[in-house]
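Record minuted for completeness.

…
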Amino acid sequence: MALNFEEWVCPLPLRDHTTIVMGHGGGGQMSGELVEHLFMPAFANPVLGGLTDSAVFQLGGARLAFSTDSFVVQPLFFPGGSIGDLAVNGTVNDLAMSGAQAAYLSCGFILEEGVELSVVGRIATDLGAAAQRAGVTIATGDTKVVDAGHGDGVYINTAGVGLVPAGVDIRPQRAAPGDVVIVSGQIGVHGIAIMSVRDGISFGTEVVSDCAPLNGLVAAMLDVCTDLHVLRDPTRGGVATSLNEIAKSAGVGVELIESTLPVPETVANACSFLGLDPLYVANEGKLLAIVAPDDAEEVLAAMQAHPLGADAAIIGSCVEAHPGMVVTKTAFGATRVVDTPIGEQLPRIC
């Protein structure tokens, strides 16, 4: 199918850019436009059409989830992890958002000429240890080297497969009015951790990334409720972008209660200093769950009983009003729209 750029109609049409800009990789509106208008026409098929964190399909009688992700974070090492940890946890978590337990991962390294072998070795060690913690096997891989000045040190791509349990149907289209929105813990930590070390900004205390594999937490949730409606890990673009994507996919509105949002003081102070909104800051070890109201308390209790969900909280609900839109009720009783960002407040965070 030929691409007709003249027919694109977006808030900021991609045809306004003749080259790729950083905003196209930020997980916001520009990323969505790139996928919708360039990649989808080229690749369109029913499996890809769902645009979920991982594709779910039948193969040889098994129901599989399959996902791939690339990691270009700078710096390569940060408080709480490294690009190696992210490469495993990011793909494990994408699979978990379909209810699947990741089984096997592939791993591709793109190395820049001149990078120190000790750096590559440290990253590989981190990646292998993260795989062991997540209970997955690195089954295959690849290595490429690019000329000095063309690779920014180390890039990693991982892909993974896992089995989706029988009876589990987790996808954004299942969000329904009355459903409860739960977040598994404090938000905005990863993005601020990256910003602090990248730009040498001190916030009075070290901010440590929340990078972690969420497959164990999801398994604990499924043990008490197999009918989870939606799961999403709010990485690029944060909680706000993830909830906007869900709202649009399901045709529902989402209302958040600002006072219930678990924002740690260090993140709140950093965001105030930098002029950022914690709802848009990336996370790497948190998930959003949307569940039926009758299941909410039991799911919340299961999350709070798990180490990665100890600070889980109900933060809002799905509503019939304003379909496709996310709003927040403030402490003053006002309502503000929480829109999808154009690009990304903090680029290169994963």
About this structure: The two ends are 32 Å apart (CA to CA). The chain has a mean pLDDT of 91. Residues 117-134 form the longest helix (18 residues).
